[in-house]
Each structure stands twice: as C-alpha cells, then as structure tokens.
Amino acid sequence: MSLTLLLIQCLNGLQYGTLLFLIAAGLTLVFGVMGFINLAHGVQYMVGAYLVFAFHQLTGSFAAAVVLSLAAALLLGLLLEYFVFRHLYGRDHLSQVLATFGIIIFLNELAKVIFGPGTLTIEPPEFLAGSIQLTEQLRYPVYRFVTILAGLAVAVILYLTVTRTRVGMLIRAGATTPEMVSALGVNVQKLFMIVFGVGAMLAGFAGVIAAPIFAIEPGMGDNILIIAFVVIIIGGIGSIRGAFLAALIVGLFDTLGRTLLIEGLELVFPPSFSNQVGPALASMLIYILMAAILVVRPQGLLPAKGAA
Amino acid sequence: MIRVDRSFLLMALIFALLFAAPFVLPLIGQTYILSLLIKAMLLAIAAISLDLLIGQGGMISLGHAAFVAIGAYAAAIGLESGIENILVLLLLALLVSGLFALITGALALRTSGVYFLMITLAFGQMIYFTLTSLAPYGGDDGLTLWSMATFFGSDVVQSGGQLYLVVLLTLLLVWWGVHRLGNSRFGRVLRAARDNPERTEIIGFSVFRYRLTAYVIAGMIAAVSGLLTMQHAEFVSPSLAAWQRSGDLLVVVVLGGLGTRSGALLGAFFLVIVEEVLGSFIHEWRLIYGPLLVLLALHAKGGLSHLLLPVAAPARTGMPRTSEDNAS
Amino acid sequence: MKAKARFTIASLAAALVTSTALFSAAIAEEVKIGMVVTLSGPPAALGQQIVDGFQLALDQNGGKLGGQDVTLIVEDDELKPDVALLKAKSLVERDEVDFVVGTVFSNMLQAIFKPVIQSDTFLISPNAGPSTFAGKNCNPYFFVTSYQNNQNAEVSGMIANEEGFEKVVLMVPNYQAGRDNVAGYKQTFKGTVADEIFTPLGHQDFSSELAQISTADADALFTFMPGGMGVRLVKQFEAAGLGDNIEFTSVFTTDETTLPGQQDAAVGFLSAGAWAPDMKNDANQAFVSAFEEKYGYVPGSYAAQSYDTANLIASALEKTGGDMSDKDATRAALEAADFTSVRGSFAFSNNHYPVQDFHLLEVAKRDDGKFWTTAKRTVVTDYADSFHAECKM
Predict the structure, then answer these.
(1) pTM for the whole thing?
(2) Does the predicted interface ipTM exceed a cut of 0.90?
C-alpha cells in the first residue's frame, strides 16, 4: 500500500472517529451522569439526518437547515425526557432498555411512513462541494475535511465546558457521586434535563453532518448505536476525554483495519477469498479490541475520575 | 400455596391449547397458524434459557442469539457434511455451543453489569461476522438446506412430519427442566449470588463457577432452539446471530416477566401474535408496537405474567442489579 | 390497568380468530400472484419499478391478465434473506398464490427458491438471474424473464475489448450476482485485471475503495452497483475527481433508477444491456410513453422486464383459460413465450432463461431535462447464457 493511500485512509478514519465521538459524547454523559441506558440515542442520530433533509427541502438553504435541525433535535430530546425518560431514572436498566427499544421501533417506522422506505440523499452545500488536491493522483473532498474540523471543535468546546464551568463541574460530580450532588441541594432534575438535551442535540448534529456523506434511511442509527456503545465502554463510562480517545481509536482501527487486513490477506489468498474473510475479520476487530480491553481494564481506558 | 397453583394452571392451560392446536386447526383449514406457533415456541425456548441467565443469575446478556445461530449452523454444516441423524446433530450443536459458552463465559464473567452486557454483545458480533465470512456455507446470503435431518431415517422430525409436536415436547421439557433447576440448590445459590455475590462467596460457594455453569446451560438450550429453527426454516443465515435478535430475546424476557414461571412463554407468544395480528390489520404495525413497549416499560412492572397473575408476584421483588448499583 | 391489560389480551385473541377467518373467506376463483421485491433501503427504487411495471400491464387490461381476474400481493423482502424467506412462505402457505414473481436480488432469490418450488408454485424472476439455477440446478417451475447475471458482464468485456481498454479494476458487491458479474467479465475481457474489489451489499461510503482505484493506474473501472449504491458511487467518483484519469463502465449502475440522483455526473458513461427506453420498436415506445404518463418518471430495465413478465403470464393464462390445476399445460404455455416483448426478440432457452440481443448503452440527457440510457449499437444477437448446456430439461 502506498503512502498516499495510507494518508487517505487515516483521514477517513479520523473523519469516522470524529463522527463517532459526536454520538458517543452524548451517550456517555447520559449514561455516566444519570446511569441511564439510552438505546434511542442512535435513532436520534437518524432523526437529525432526516431533519436536515426536510428543512433543506423547506428552506432551500443548508445553513438554515442545520440550525433548524439542531433546534428540533433539542426539542425532541427534551420532549422524550419529559414524557418517558424522566420516569425511568430510578428504575432498573432493563426497563430503560425496553422503553428505549420501543422508541427505536416507533421512530424507525415513523421515518418509513413519512419519508418512504427508500434512501434519501442530500448534497453538501455548494461552497463545500469540491475536493482538495493532495497528491498528483489523490484528492480529498472538502466536506469531509470540514466534518473532521467540526468534530474536533465540538470536542474542544465540550472539554472546556466540562472542565471549566459550573455545569461541567456538576456533571463531573454527578458522574461519580450522584447522591452527593443532590444532597448538596443542586436541582438534579434540571441538570438531567440539560445533559439530556445536549446529548440529543449532539446525536442530532452527528446525523446532520453525516447526512451528505451517508445515505439517509430508516434504521441508519441502529448499527452506529452499537459502535457508540463500544466507544464509551472502551473510553470509560461518563468520560468525555475517554470517549474522544476511544472514538479516534475505533475510527482509525476500523478504517485502517479494513484496508490493511484485506491487503495482507491478498498476499496469501485469492482476492475473492480475502474479500470475503477480510471485511468480516475487520468488522470484528473493534469487538475484539473491546473484549480485550474489558478483560484487562474493566473500567475502560480513561474512566471518569473517582468512579469505583 | 394458591399462588403457585394459579401460575401452574396458566401454564397447564397454555400447554393444553398447544397440544390441541394440531388437531383443531387443520379442521378449520388453518395449518398456516401451526407454522406461526412453531415460531413462537422456538422463540420461547431461547427466551427461557435467557431468563435463566437474567432472571435467576442477574447476568444480562446481549449476545444470546449467537448461541441460537451456533446451534443452527452446527447442525446445518453437519447436514451438509452428510450427517443426517438429528440426535448426532443435536450432540454436535450442544458440544459446539457448550464449548463456545465455556470459553466466552470464562472471559465475560470477569466483568459484571453493563460491562457484561457489552462483552457478550462483542462475542455475539464476532459470531455474526464469522458466519458472514463462511463462503462455503453461503456467507452473507445464508444457506438453503435441500435435505433435512431425520430421526433414524424417519421424517418425523421434519416439517412434513411431526415437527410441531417435536418442538412442543422440547419446549415442555426445557420449561420443566429450567423450572426444576431454579428450585434446586443450584438455583438458590445462583439467586443468592445475584443478590449478594460477596456473601455467597464467603459462605463458601464459587460464584464464578455457578455463573459459568448457568451460562453454559443457557447457551446449550439456545442451541437446541437453533437446531430446531434450522429444521423448521430449512434455511440458515447470519441474521440469526444479529444483535437485534439478541435484543428481541431480551425484550421477550423483560416483557413476559423476569424470573417468573410463565414469563418467557408469554413474552414470546405476545411478540409473535402482536406482529401477526397487528400486521394483518395495519401494515405499519410497528407504530403501535413501539409505544406499546414504552407503556409496558413505564407501567407494567414485572411484565405480562404479573399483569395476568397479579397475585402470583414473582418469587422475588428486586430486578437484577448492575455493577453501578453495587458500586454506589 | 390490570383489567385493561386482560381486556387487551382477550381482544388480541379475538382479533386473531377474526383475521384468520378472513383469510379463509378470501379464497375465490381469481388468479393470485405474489410478488417479493426489495422496497426498503438503498435499492428501494428497483423494487418500485418492478411493482409499477407489473401494475401498468394489469391496469392496461382492466385488472386482468389473459382474461382472468388477478389479485396481486406485494411483499417487501427488506433485502434480508430471512425476511424474504418468511414472506415467500406466507405467500405460498397462507395466501396460496399461483405465481410468485421475484426477486430483485440474487441472494433473495436463493432464499425463497426452495419453499416456492417445493410447493409446485411457478417462480418467475423479473430481474435476478443467478448462475446457480441456470445449469444443472435448473428447475421446471422456475423462469427468468430478465437475463442471466453473467451475460451483461460478458458483453461489457466484449465492449472493453472493442474500446481498447488494457487494464481495468473490477468492483462489485460481495454476493452471488456480484461474483457472477466478475466471472462474466473475465470470461470475455482480453486485457489484464489490475484489482478486484468486493464491497458489502448496500455499501455507502466508497472513499477507501476510490482511493484504492485511483492508485491502481488502470484505463477503466468496471462496476456493478445497482440502486442507491450506484448513486453514491458515481457522486463520490466525481467528488474525488477520478473521471479525468479513469473510464467509468458499468452494468445496472447508471440506469433510469439511479440517473435521477446522478444527473450530469453520469452523462456519457457506458454500460451494457438488453434494453434501453429509446429502443425503436412499437411495443416499447407504447410502453415507455404509457409508463411515463402514469408514474411521471422514466422506466428502467426493471420496469420493462416486469412489464414483460406480466405479459408472459397473460399469454400463458390465455392459453390455459386460467386453469391453474394443470401445471404441465401452464409450463408449456410459459415456455412458448408467446407475447410481444418490449425488447424486440425474446425466447426462452431450455433452462428457462432468455435468449436475446445485447447492446452498448450510453447515458444521455433528454431535451426535457430528464436523463436516460440510449442504445448505441448492438453488440451480440440471440445471445444465450453459458450454462444452459448443463441443464437437463
């Protein structure tokens, strides 16, 4: 494999990683602070993609669609929190799984009813449409660079919020000792709503920026949800830094693994065989990684400080 | 003691109906329903085994469908290699699933709670992707089986024969066996370990060993369901091991009522009947099914068996706890 | 709450009884046709064309085919083999259909093949034509009205020789039809294959594959990416700026199902096929204009093949007078293929796969701003597949 191809695959891995981070960040906060397993987080990612499609149709402007989608994603998150999740905070994980599973089924079907079962596509805005010449043979689409930058920017903002602000301090405290936070007279209900709303908005944002790259279709959030769970388990539940590190590791591991493994197998086996076995092995890599990390470090790479 | 009788009564009624079905349904020209009932019973067998893990052992697995798939593929590959006797295939399915459970269980049980859930998911995904790469056996596309297993040359265990009764008897046997297991010393230790692992350990039981045994048994029962699923569908595909299938099993168990005698059965029949009945009225039946699950999660603590038999409360009050609860 | 729940269960049970009673009441004299196609996900448009093409033929004859009343039951296989199997089983067991028409994809066909054939129901594929059932596994109950998967690729290989490509990269989804296409191309192509890339079916992000292609230093890419996969690939091919260095050739990738998404990015791209909407026979021009008027979009080969399938069934029902009990008579009537195909010449080989002409197709923009493929020249005539000799039928 040539050096330029390696470079491109690193960029692809980085882009996938930052996208994963946006989804995992909300998931890890909700999980860490409230001890709440939100399976519906993936479907909120799907909703973000559909929202940007719908608003783009309505307004004709990508920028306006992004803003409106974020607001709508936030609203949906708050509504779900108010009507469903709020009543499940004190309950066992299995009730949360059942309820959020029901929400997945409902929203996936709703998307199918409203937008049809087929795949929708949306173009990136005009000024982000071209590609950048990297080498003589290789170009890289501008839009993908921008998604990497957007992901990194969100990571920095989140990190500063969590480490430097009062809300962030409460979130950190909530992730480690929730009883103490409420005992000190903090309005936990409000804190939970804020965390939840931000989580929903981040998932929606991930859906928005993924929409022009991937196809928009019902069920698009299901598999990415599982990968996001892998990320937060590897990173350590409740830890933003952990989620960031793990998202990049998973993104790069997955993308590079796919090419390197197939290329490696092709040295020994015919292409049809290595292309059959390679992707399967590559898809397994991140799970093998997670299982290995769990066996060695059951709390993940960078657990939220002070957690047992 | 009346409580026990009522839940047994319900089970007796369900089994009586299931035994009567193959005699009654053909009379009204409804053989298609028998196929649906087989589907529900196969789901119930797998769900009962998962309930042994969750309800009794407090081990929430999100990779249980992998064992169903292992059972189905072990039997299918056996068939393709010329083994036709269903008893030999059963042995094969039990061996492979048991071995896989032993290895992955030993690793997974180093963790608990949500981490256990995720590591079982990881093993399930590994099985899923392994199956997609089995090119000689169809890979992603799955494999149509042209000749099915026999019982010493007899087609009694095939769809054309008495497969319905075979599945029903298996379900009865599994239900009774797991019920007996729960009432035995083994079951009591398992529940004690679920509620307080430290104390159980101090009393002198190896929590790890008991849990691992339960994990292996549950895996092997699920594999039996897989073998019969293959025999019924005459087709195997990697989707048997998809994580959504494990999620479905989890929903069946929670919906039915954890650790109850009838829960897994009720949940399985509920799922199949709701899908068929709602689906025949409205194509978008999931729009109703989804909110139904949310409502049940919010309002029906203890699941369907608790709704049906309000007096016969589950043998215990608490739900399985996770490491976070223990840690705090 | 508890009382309510009991009521729910009771009413569910009641509903089950009523709905099953409805099934049995529905058995009447009309001919029942079940259809299993993909209507979800990236290739949903393909299945929709098949439904629309068939429905057009039905509507043109007042809901009848060959003088018989027809009930059409459409099922979505969701591009999942296990779902396809389930839907096919319920069509055969619950609805007791006389014909099953399906599928779009070869792997779905393999999943539904056994239960449909074993119930002695005729299975007619309006699109998928895997090599699996063309040779020694050919079946008296199975017909294909489209093509054999390898054929279009074989013709593409011939075209590549004619165009003077020496080094090509092949990229297909990793499933039966994908592998058939690679095998077909390699059978006729005389140059060197620089690389073979297999992607998952339903693949969306081609960035790493495109990077691989751009470093392979080839004259042309040959690919087979039906439906949404093709839309993504062509757009990403353009975004990565590969068009300047590498010729894009394909089958079922730049057609009427994908062109509305690809638009100008695909104009001039070459492909091979047995049909194009601009073909100049009367049946075809009537079909295309009726189709566009009714559905408002340009039909693709999927719709054309499905339209042909409906007319094939009509010709058979006409001959048998709608008597579905005599399977041999129905089979003989189907084998005769006594209908006017929109493709011009059409006949069945001994394996029930078509014998027909193949053409070089090119994407063009019409004067009204819509996109379609045009037939440039005929490459081979009366072309049968390479497996039919192995079929003992």
Answers:
(1) 0.86
(2) no
